[in-house]
Amino acid sequence: MFKSKDLLGLRDLSGEDIMEILTTAKEMKTKIDYAHLRDDTLKKASIVTLFYENSTRTKTSFMLAGAYLGGIVQDLGVSTSSVNKGESLIDTGLNIDKMGVKFMIIRHSMTGAAAVLARNVKACVINAGDGTNEHPTQALLDMYTILDYMGGFKGLKVVILGDISHSRVARSNAFGLVKLGAKVTLAGPSTLISGNMRALGVEVTSDIKGAIADADVVMGLRVQFERQKNMPFPNTREYAALYGINSELLKYAKPDALVMHPGPVNRGVEFSTDVIDGKNSVINIQVKNGVAVRMAILKLLYEANVDL
Ligand code: CP
Question: d(Cα 288, Cα 156) in Å, to the nearest integer?
Fold first, then answer.
């Protein structure tokens, strides 16, 4: 039974917790498709989103998830808030807490920001991405999508490719997938990957063709230009030629391999357009599943903290 106050990362969750979220998400999926099945689990709950970094998928799907469960959902609108007058993260959180909210959903460029907020507020805090640390709800929707197509995780070869060193998505997926028995390979240019990642129980390589060979899942990651201090490769054309996945390279994976990407995609950089829009791609399905997974997270956290 899921018991935490907050959801900060997959490092802290057990395999059973993860499976409970994924099973609950399956129930939630029908509520998205059939509006008359939506319930009022969160009718007494208010949710505030605090996005200090940009977002399309995560913020919108959390706002829809909260509304589909009957909650009151409000976005802080960080760029027009008193954050711009210098108010600290903790003071911002304490003020919102006083308004009686049940959930704060935060994205921040600082690693550990969600944990700092969680330690200081009564509300349940959900990490929507903190620096280069974790993006747990993205990894959970990725895992939901894999489970839906593949029926399980044990022994699956999952290759995560690209800008590994800046990727909170790679870290959360590594924590979750390894716990459930998948074989995870992280692959990318040596300037964007560190051998230290082996401590997560994954393989690390710069041999892209070898990494993709017989893969069940090929997950690309966006090159995070906004987090680079120095360009880690000469230009995007060269990156695409050496490390991008096109349909020829994809032939090394299993024929029914899933092509995944958390978005937003740099078309023609990490994946060619024919791969993004090709028959193996489940990138749009991931986005759809994100709403169900976030509904499941809100429901389970609410039920675990209803008396808080
Ligand atoms: N995958 C993801 O986090 O997308 P957004 O930045 O649009 O939320």
Answer: 23
55 lines ligand 1 (CB under 6 A): yes
pLDDT band for 234, please (50, 70, 90 cuts): low
State in Å, rounded, how far the first CA of the chain is from the last one. Answer: 17
For 59-110, the DSSP string reads HHHHHHHHHHTT-EEEE--GGGSGGGGT--HHHHHHHHHHTT-SEEEEEESS
CA of 58 to the centre of ligand 1 (A): 5
Q: Is 11 in the pocket of ligand 1 (CB under 6 A)?
A: no
- Summarize the confidence of residues 153-174 as an average pLDDT: 95
Q: In angstroms, how far is CA 266 from the centroid of its own chain?
A: 17
Q: Is the pLDDT of residue 225 over 70?
A: no
Out of 58, 108, 143, mutate this one to test ligand 1's pocket (max ligand atoms within 8 Å of CB): namely 58
Tell whether pTM > 0.90: yes
| C-alpha to C-alpha distance for 219 and 202, rounded to whole angstroms | 14
Identity of the amino acid at 107: R
Pocket test for ligand 1, best of 138, 167, 284 (most atoms within 8 A of CB): 138
Q: What is the pLDDT of residues 80-129, one digit of tens each?
A: 999 999 999 999 999 999 999 999 999 999 999 999 999 999 999 999 99
Question: What percent of the chain has pLDDT above 70?
Answer: 96
Q: Are strands 203-205 and 183-187 parallel, antiparallel or unpaired?
A: parallel
